[in-house]
Write a structure and sequence with these properties.
The protein is mainly alpha-helical and 247 residues long. It has ten helices and no strands.
Length: 247
């Protein structure tokens, strides 16, 4: 119970610290996905903005999951190390797992806010309907977040400078968002390329999330991809634990 209180207190401290320090960044992290939804829906929708938006809403949410893992955790850990903040945290009585868990809880709560906002805007403006089972949607969203947070933590574990971490996060986030069925349907690529793109964990997550949320598919329908995402999560966590250093 005491550790749970510590975890909740640290998560609350993360919210206070980030909102006070980076309130403008948080505003834009909520506004930019909505901006992309509006622009892409009108630009690519033609006479059927509802169909386009139904494709884009889960894709944009998936892109935010990638960003939360690679930018929100990976690059941030490298920044903390460079500024000696990780060392200060290590020297406090705060257990390491509490620090990481509270950080993940903060990012996942922000992600939930982004997802809810996109779903509301999509529903009000473009009549997008989320028909999937709420528990199944929550499960696949949490699994996807865990996968890319674990992969992002690898960046924070092995990269020592903020500049390098930001560069790696950019190289991973932007191409994956455009090549993983988030903004552009994979079916528009040549068949051979599409087959390769479906091997990416980002594509597997975004397609599973879209199918479960927008088409009402069951978790069992995507059982193979869920198993692969879980394997990526375990692998990323193991590598991070092996190479992570507080200083």
């Amino acid at each position: 119970m005491n550790l749970l209180r510590v975890l909740l207190a640290q998560t609350r401290a993360n919210f206070i610290w980030y909102f006070l320090r980076d309130g403008e960044m948080i505003f834009w992290s909520l506004a930019i996905p909505v901006f992309f939804l509006l622009v892409f829906s009108f630009a690519f929708g033609g006479g059927n903005t509802r169909q386009t938006s139904t494709f884009l809403v889960p894709g944009l949410i998936g892109a935010q999951v990638l960003s939360s893992g690679f930018w929100g955790v990976g690059a941030m850990l490298a920044t903390f190390r460079e500024k000696k903040l990780l060392r200060r945290i290590y020297l406090t009585p705060l257990p390491g797992w509490v620090f990481f868990t509270s950080l993940v809880l903060y990012r996942m709560t922000l992600l939930a806010m982004q997802a809810l906002l996109l779903a509301i805007v999509g529903g009000l403006l473009f009549h997008v309907r989320v028909i999937g089972n709420p528990l199944a949607i929550a499960f696949i969203l949490v699994l996807g977040a865990a996968t890319f947070v674990s992969l992002g933590t690898v960046i924070g574990a092995v990269v020592r400078s903020t500049e390098s971490a930001n560069n790696i996060a950019s190289v991973l986030t932007v191409p994956l968002a455009f090549l993983s069925d988030a903004y552009i349907p994979i079916d528009r690529f040549p068949a051979q390329i599409g087959t390769l793109l479906r091997l990416l964990p980002s594509t597997q997550f975004i397609d599973a999330f879209r199918g479960i949320a927008m088409q009402g598919e069951s978790l069992a329908h995507y059982g193979g991809w869920i198993a692969l995402l879980a394997a990526w999560t375990v692998a990323g966590t193991a590598i991070s634990a092996r190479y992570f250093r507080w200083v």
